[in-house]
Amino acid sequence: MSNSRSSLLPSSPPSTTSSSSAASSDSDESPPSRPSSAADECRHFKNHPRPPPPAEPPSLSSYKCLAVLSGHAGSVSCISLCGEFILSASQGKDITVWQQPDLRPFARFGQGDGSVKAVLTVGNRVFTAHQDSRIRVWKVSSSSSSSPSSESGKEEENAFRLVNSLPTRKDYLGRFLKQSNYVQTRRHHKKLWIEHADSISCLAAHNGFLFSGSWDKTLKVWRVSDLKCLESIMAHDDAINALQVASDGTLYSASADGKIKSWRREGAKHALNGVLEGHKDVSLNAMVVVSGGGFVYGAGSDGYVIGWGQNSHNNSNKKRVVCEVKAHEMSVLSLCVMGGFLCSGSADRSIGIWKVGGDGGLFRVGIIKGHEGGVRCLQASPVCVGGGFMLYSGSLDRTLRVWWVPNYCPSGGFTQKVCVSQSVDSHNPIQKKNYCPWKIFDAVEST
């Protein structure tokens, strides 16, 4: 396992102004309705007709990649922040723990069959979702912040300890004798309704509840305190790829069926609250919620990022399309948001940096290049560093890279805004106005 680092910040950053998957051969078992892995998705996307991307302006300046962390057995599938640690998981079943600020490898853990699809930290517990249809629960040791012993490695081994898996044995034994607790998953196959029948692709948590989404098209709700499954919802017509929870508790699910659905808790159950339609026959691979739920953005396999916001023309809670951006040349695989910035990772191996406007429009302010494979996952750190924030990206090239993104938009030079379709018809031409500067970030790997 190796890692390389350069200086923490760019050598000559511009003055600040005041003012979040080469394609690897790794593959996953997946539903027949879509490609079996992000690499396959890249190849699949070539069959879709697509308009040319916006012309790329000349580079204004270059920033260094702060670190390139390697050692995963497969492509990096998900990233999570856990206190002073960064957790990165891969198609190779392993979860690697990197300790900040020096980004040294601290520990490695993992269990089960198939790749790790999602990692989520809730308090002193880490939840991991797996291709084998199980959720595993790990307890973070209170002594995990101490340096691992080079002699025995006990601190390293016990830092992340497996304590349970979902559904729990208690939950399973309490239900398996009753026939009414079984559901048909496919022909001649039945499972308990508390079990997922396919890969678990995403996790989210809010207010004492854990939510899991799966390729089996269902959304399940778990109580964090006792890990009991409370609900199972047949939420979509195809695989669920992303889950997000707004600050008001509204749950959003994005699917390969091209829809984002919102769910509200009514009494003891969640009920469908609304449906946001993406492009026809286009999978939504990722999603983020901005401004406490005021705006929702979905990432499509056609390279577009579509945003929805509140309809200001009436008092309805229904959202309308507020922006439609041709963000990348190929499928958009990941999204994250930090403050007023949205970051998009693509199968074209680049990361787009976007400023979120007050109306929900997206202003492109930067392009990060350096990965040799599609960018499967993104995670931004809320800690301010040198007038910017840290961005972590995981890729099909099996590396985790660390970037510094300035928290400002420099004035002068070539400017461009790529947005905004003001019509509720998402297929109307994109209007371009109120341009904003670009930057080009190039990875430099230190020796």
TrEMBL record:
Q: Which InterPro entries match?
A: JINGUBANG-like, WD40/YVTN_repeat-like_dom_sf, WD40_PAC1, WD40_repeat_dom_sf, WD40_rpt
Q: Which UniProt keywords apply?
A: Repeat, WD repeat
Which residue intervals correspond to the WD repeats? Answer: 193-232, 233-263, 368-403
The record's section on PANTHER family has:
F-BOX AND WD40 DOMAIN PROTEIN, OS01G0946100 PROTEIN
Q: What is this protein called?
A: Uncharacterized protein
Q: Where is this region: Disordered?
A: 1-59
Q: Superkingdom of the source?
A: Eukaryota
Return the Low complexity bias intervals: 1-25
